[in-house]
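Tokens for Ethanolamine utilization protein EutL. Go.
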Amino acid sequence: MTLERIHAEILAVRVIPNVDPNLAKQFNLEPHQRSLGIFTSTVDDIGYTALDEATKRSDVEVVYARSFYGGSAHASGPLSGEMIGIIAGPSPDEVKSGLEAVFQTAEGDAFFEALNPEKTHAIYAHVVSRTGSYLSKEAGIPQGEPLAYLIAPPLEAVYGLDAALKAADVELVKFFGPPSETNFGGGLLTGSQSACRAAADAFRQAILDIANNPK
């Protein structure tokens, strides 16, 4: 069954070519990290996936990434969305290259899947074939390993993770206990690329079963 995709929108983006030293201290920047790229996204988990992709395509590191409480529906302003991400690099060109990767990933390669026509019930069952520095650090795994990034509403997340772990030879390396800031839950699972895909498929199917028969 093919579910309708829900892509993220990058709402605002700015580059600081030469960050002020006082601000640099707040992000614990290294001396060579002189430039910052800042963006907001309508979907937090897609934004985090996009940040990881930026670290693979450019000489940048993620220095700040946070979700906003309540999600996009309760954003503090029209350009706030659901999360903010900040990357740092040695030059504006490197940061801009990283932001290009963010746009491509957030608006094309990564997506939630709608479980109902209203798109009010959705899951994230995304497989990262090769992690960059950001998600590797978050998951506590070596850089370049496959990862299943699985997110859903609270009950669905717990049930779906159990199904994913039983379906393939994968390990739960990070658990996002519900509720998160955006009232979802889930986890990061690692294993071979094929195992991660099998886990993501099992996660999706288990939650589809819940959506079709909640009680």
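The two ends are 22 Å apart (CA to CA).
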